[in-house]
Amino acid sequence: MSALFSRYQALAQSVRPSNVNLKPVTVISKSHGGLSNKDVEEEISRFLLQDDVYTEEFASNVVIQVPAGVALNTSIHLSSLEQHGLKTSYIDYSVANSTETLLPSGPYFAHDNGIYEAWRLYPDELDAFEIAIVPEASQNPEK
Predict the structure, then answer these.
(1) Alpha-carbon distance 127 to 18, whole Å?
(2) Structure pTM?
(3) Which helix (H) or strand (E) holds 50?
(4) Do 123 and 47 form a contact (C-beta atoms < 8 A)?
């Protein structure tokens, strides 16, 4: 099992999707220092303005991730985020083994025991793509 896959799987287990097939999740990774409610709000606002995939639904589930050895601020509260218009119903915290194993901050989908990056899909009006495109693992150059 690759380190990248196990990293996604470990984080997905903390989200625990219910009976829904896919659950939108915002991952906010911080490699150093603390993270406040304001930092989370600013990060989500930045995603809403700049990320072409991100929508408000991703803010319903937030996972704060830090590497081992960094103090984890667990004082981020749902009520504080809701006061600023964010409809967040779930916040979880995750500690990665190291900075290298942090997931990039952004939108993801949780499903069963996996967590997957959210990609924008475009209509293929000319039927140019007949098979799916899967990225090679950037962590595994042998492929």
Answers:
(1) 35
(2) 0.68
(3) helix 37-50
(4) no
135: which DSSP letter?
Answer: P
**Rounded to 5 degrees, what are φ and ψ at 42?**
-65, -40
According to DSSP, the β-strands at 23-29 and 106-111 are antiparallel
Residue 54 CB coordination number (10 Å): 20
Choose from 14-23, 46-55, 92-101, 119-128 the range with maximum mean pLDDT: 46-55
Rg (CA), the chain: 16
Any bridge partners for residue 24, and if so which? 109
Phi, psi of 96 (to 5 degrees): -85, 160
Strand 90-96: give its sheet, edge to edge: 90-96, 61-67, 23-29, 106-111, 114-117
